[in-house]
C-alpha cells in the first residue's frame, strides 16, 4: 500500500513513512493510492467482535508491512486499554431512529483520543525498530494538544511540544497540557491566537534545515494515521445497527474535516452508509461551500463549540482531491487561491461533493437550545459540539434510516456552556477529579519563529 500527495509533487511513501512525516514536502496531504474494500461477509463477521478486533480488521489492509499482525494487535490493545468504557465507543439511543455515538470515554474526554492513543503506540513501535527519534510539534486550540500530550507522555524516542494560545484555552484544556510531569512533555503558551500557533507550526515544517535537524513530525489531524484510526468507529457503530444488511447515516460535528472524511473512507471500503452529514457551528464555511457558494474565508467568530471555530479546514483538501478526479495540479492551484482568500469549486467537482456529503449549520442559540432540549427530552447531557451535530441531524434525517450523531467531547470539558443551557454543571470523571490540584508547568513564549526554534532545539530530552 503506497500513499500519494494531494498536490502530486511529493514522492509516494509507505504507511510508516507517511505516518511519521505528517505533511508531504509539497505541502499536500497523504492519501492511499487505492482504497481497500471489505466484503459483505467480512463486514457481517464483525458482529459481536470487540472494538479492538474490529479495529484490527478495518485498519490492517492500510498498514502494509509496517507491523506484523501480532505487533499490530498489541499496539491496538495498548492504545485503548486506558479508555473508561468496555465498548470504547458505545451507542446510546436518543430518540426512535436517532443514536449518539459516545466518543468521549478516552483519557482526555474527546474523540481525538481514539486516533492519538493509537498513533502514540504506532510511533513508539516504529521508532524503536528504526533506532530513530522524532520531535513532535503541534498547534492546538485545546483538544488536540491535550490528546497528543496524553498519548506521547513518557514514551521513549519522542519529545512533544504543543503550542497553544496563551489565555485562550479553557482551564480544563490548559491543565491537561500543563500538569503532566514527564520530561518529554513541553507545553508552550504562545502570545498570540490559534492561527498564529498554526502559522508558526507551518513555518517550522517549511524550514527544511530545522525540520530535518530535529526530525520534526506532525500529529495534527492531517496525519493519515489519525484519519485511519477514526474509520473504525463508523464500522463498529453501523454493524451494531445492522450493517451490512441495513443502511445507516452519520452526522458529524466538523472543523478540520478529519472525522467526517474517515466516514467517507468507511463508505468507500464498502460500509453501507446512506448520508454523511457535515454539521458546522456559526463558522459555516464548509456548509456554504457544500451549498455551492465556493470556499471563501471570512473572520473566525469565537463560539461555544471552539474546537470547530475554523476557516481553513485542512482535511477538506483530501475531499477536493477526489472530487477533482485525483488531479494534484488542480488541488495545488486551489490551495494557492485559498492563500489569497478563497476559491470557487468547478461544476463537476461540486456535483461529486454534493453526491458525497450533505450539510447543515447550528447558530449559537440553536446549539444552546439543543443542549437544553436533549437534557429535557432525551435525558442526555451534550457538549456544545455534539449539540451542533444533534441539531443538524434532527433536521436532515430520514426516519427510515437510522441516524448516528457523533458525540465528540464529554460535557464536563465545556462546563460553562452546558451550565448556561441546563443549569447543571457536569462533573469531571473520577480519574481527572484532582486536575485542579496538580502543579502546572509551561513556558510562555512570543509569537516568534526564531524564539520557538531555539527553545525547541535547546530543550530536547532525547
Ligand atoms: C476536533 C474536534 C471537532 C472537529 O473534528 P474535525 O476532525 O476537526 O472535523 C469536533 N468536536 C470536538 C470536541 C473536537 O475536539
TrEMBL record:
Belongs to the threonine synthase family. One of its GO terms (biological process) is threonine biosynthetic process. It comes from the Bacteria. Keywords: Amino-acid biosynthesis, Lyase, Pyridoxal phosphate, Threonine biosynthesis. Pfam families: PALP, THR4_C, Thr_synth_N. It comes from Sulfitobacter alexandrii. It catalyses: O-phospho-L-homoserine + H2O = L-threonine + phosphate. Residues 2-80 form the Threonine synthase N-terminal domain. Pathway: Amino-acid biosynthesis; L-threonine biosynthesis; L-threonine from L-aspartate: step 5/5. Gene3D superfamilies: 3.40.50.1100, Threonine synthase, N-terminal domain. This is Threonine synthase. GO terms for molecular function: pyridoxal phosphate binding; threonine synthase activity. Its cofactor is pyridoxal 5'-phosphate. Residues 99-331 form the Tryptophan synthase beta chain-like PALP domain.
Amino acid at each position: 500500500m503506497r500513499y500519494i500527495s494531494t498536490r502530486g509533487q511529493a514522492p509516494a511513501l509507505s504507511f510508516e513513512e507517511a505516518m511519521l512525516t505528517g505533511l508531504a514536502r509539497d505541502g499536500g496531504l497523504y492519501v492511499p493510492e487505492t482504497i481497500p474494500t471489505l466484503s459483505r461477509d467480512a463486514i457481517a463477521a464483525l458482529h459481536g467482535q470487540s472494538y479492538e478486533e474490529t479495529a484490527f480488521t478495518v485498519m490492517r489492509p492500510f498498514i502494509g508491512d509496517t507491523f506484523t499482525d501480532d505487533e499490530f494487535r498489541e499496539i491496538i490493545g495498548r492504545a485503548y486499554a486506558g479508555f473508561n468504557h468496555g465498548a470504547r465507543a458505545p451507542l446510546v439511543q436518543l430518540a426512535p431512529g436517532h443514536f449518539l455515538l459516545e466518543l468521549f470515554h478516552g483519557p482526555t474526554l474527546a474523540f481525538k483520543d481514539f486516533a492519538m492513543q493509537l498513533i502514540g503506540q504506532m510511533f513508539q513501535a516504529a521508532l524503536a525498530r528504526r533506532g530513530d527519534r522524532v520531535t513532535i510539534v503541534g498547534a492546538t486550540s485545546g483538544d488536540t494538544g491535550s490528546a497528543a500530550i496524553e498519548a506521547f507522555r513518557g514514551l521513549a524516542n519522542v519529545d512533544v511540544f504543543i503550542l497553544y494560545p496563551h489565555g485562550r484555552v479553557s482551564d480544563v484544556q490548559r491543565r491537561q497540557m500543563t500538569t503532566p510531569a514527564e520530561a518529554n512533555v513541553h507545553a508552550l503558551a504562545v502570545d498570540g491566537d490559534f492561527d498564529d500557533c498554526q502559522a508558526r507550526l507551518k513555518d517550522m515544517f517549511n524550514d527544511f534545515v530545522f525540520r530535518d535537524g530535529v526530525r520534526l513530525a506532525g500529529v495534527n489531524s492531517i496525519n493519515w494515521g489519525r484519519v485511519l484510526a477514526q474509520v473504525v468507529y463508523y464500522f463498529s457503530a453501523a454493524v451494531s445497527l445492522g450493517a451490512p444488511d441495513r443502511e445507516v447515516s452519520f452526522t458529524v460535528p466538523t472543523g478540520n474535516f478529519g472525522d467526517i472524511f474517515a466516514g467517507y473512507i468507511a463508505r468507500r471500503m464498502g460500509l453501507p452508509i446512506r448520508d454523511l452529514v457535515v454539521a458546522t457551528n456559526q463558522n459555516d464555511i464548509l456548509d456554504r461551500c457544500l451549498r455551492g457558494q465556493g470556499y471563501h474565508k471570512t473572520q473566525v467568530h469565537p463560539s461555544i463549540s471552539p474546537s470547530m471555530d475554523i476557516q481553513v479546514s485542512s482535511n477538506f483538501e483530501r475531499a477536493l482531491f477526489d472530487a477533482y478526479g485525483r488531479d494534484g495540479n488542480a488541488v495545488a492551484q486551489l490551495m494557492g487561491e485559498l492563500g489569497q482568500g478563497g476559491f470557487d469549486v468547478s461544476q463537476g467537482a461540486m456535483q461529486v461533493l454534493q453526491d458525497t456529503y450533505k450539510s447543515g449549520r447550528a447558530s449559537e442559540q440553536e446549539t444552546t437550545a439543543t443542549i437544553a432540549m436533549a437534557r429535557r427530552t432525551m435525558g442526555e447531557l451534550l457538549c456544545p459540539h455534539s449539540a451542533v451535530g444533534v441539531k443538524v441531524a434532527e433536521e436532515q434525517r430520514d426516519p427510515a434510516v437510522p441516524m448516528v450523531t457523533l458525540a465528540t467531547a464529554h460535557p464536563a470539558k465545556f462546563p460553562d456552556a452546558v451550565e448556561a443551557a441546563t443549569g447543571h454543571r457536569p462533573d469531571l470523571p473520577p480519574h481527572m477529579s484532582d486536575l485542579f490540584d496538580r502543579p502546572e508547568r509551561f513556558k510562555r513564549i512570543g509569537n516568534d519563529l526564531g524564539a520557538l526554534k531555539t527553545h525547541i532545539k535547546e530543550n530536547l530530552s532525547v
